[in-house]
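[Structure tokenization] protein backbone as discrete codes
[Encoding] learned vocabulary of local backbone shapes
[Protein] chain in single-letter code, fold in tokens
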Amino acid sequence: MSTAELQAELQRRERNVRKLERRREKLLEDLSTVEQALAEEGALSAAGGIRRRPRNEKNLVDSLADVLKGKEMSVTEVTQAVQQAGYMTTAANFRTIVNQALIRENKRFKKVSRGRYTAR
């Protein structure tokens, strides 16, 4: 390849980069407008992303009671069983949430031994 051909190729690529940068800026402006509209409607989380919270037929306590009825399980076993039963969550610390629910709802759950619960 000659020097002139290399220079022509570099110029072509620079034009293409400038064109893509202009397109990117336009798309970012459009995205900003859409995100602002979503925020006004309350459809954005605090982090700016779209909320994707799963909807369950039953709340967590009712789901735990169903799973524990007639059984004795550890918190980890209950956590796995409730998810296998169809309870959906995106929580990174779901085991902790289950543990707190078991402790808080002492009228519905009985602590059998350390870390083991059953439904009343």
Observations:
- The beta strands are 72-74, 109-113, 116-119.
- The longest helix spans residues 3-40.
- Helices lie at 3-40, 60-68, 75-84, 94-104.
- The chain has a mean pLDDT of 88.
